[in-house]
């Protein structure tokens, strides 16, 4: 089985690494578009155009499934890509608003996302459907992805996030950009043990397995090695 993973930049490598751990029998192939990273400040039409072009190596490799390991690309492009390439299953990422809203005990969550993701119709729909009774706080993370791409994840200032957590009594943080996965350990340290930090790698792996198992029902099932 071949799994393609696309992200605008380094964020997809974190997702790919987790997929290799959880689905060790699969070959995981990555593609990125670092010439145009970050995507978070671009228009929806531009993100679709860039994503459509950048996934060509994964299509050429005949991947069994392609993961759009980018919330911005998912929001802007996944539905059109499914129409463009109906024979190829696409798995997209979206902010984990639903699980965060069900987990919170204080009724307040933080969603860390790019401006494009926060403005997307899909994200707004997720908030309406699953977080109507929850206080959703959206701190300014607009410079985080660029810092990660520069190899400066350790320099990202998390003081504002810490202030939001305390001021809003938030107990769940949603990392809604794969670049932010590289900050997860630091965010967990800043947030403290009473705050849960969510990112979607395990959920993506489970969805990939559902798709590939359905496509080949005669294949010998392989364990999904969740911790």
From TrEMBL:
Record keywords: Isomerase
Alphabetical list of Pfam families matching this protein: Asp_Glu_race (PF01177)
Gene3D superfamilies: 3.40.50.1860
Enzyme class, UniProt record, top EC level: isomerase
Highest taxon listed in the record's lineage: Bacteria
InterPro entries registered for this protein in UniProt: Asp/Glu/hydantoin_racemase (IPR015942), Asp/Glu_race (IPR001920), Asp/Glu_racemase_AS_1 (IPR018187)
Record has Isomerase as a keyword: yes
This protein's record includes keyword Isomerase: yes
Organism (species): Garicola koreensis
Full protein name: Glutamate racemase
MF (Gene Ontology): glutamate racemase activity
EC number: 5.1.1.3
PROSITE patterns: ASP_GLU_RACEMASE_1
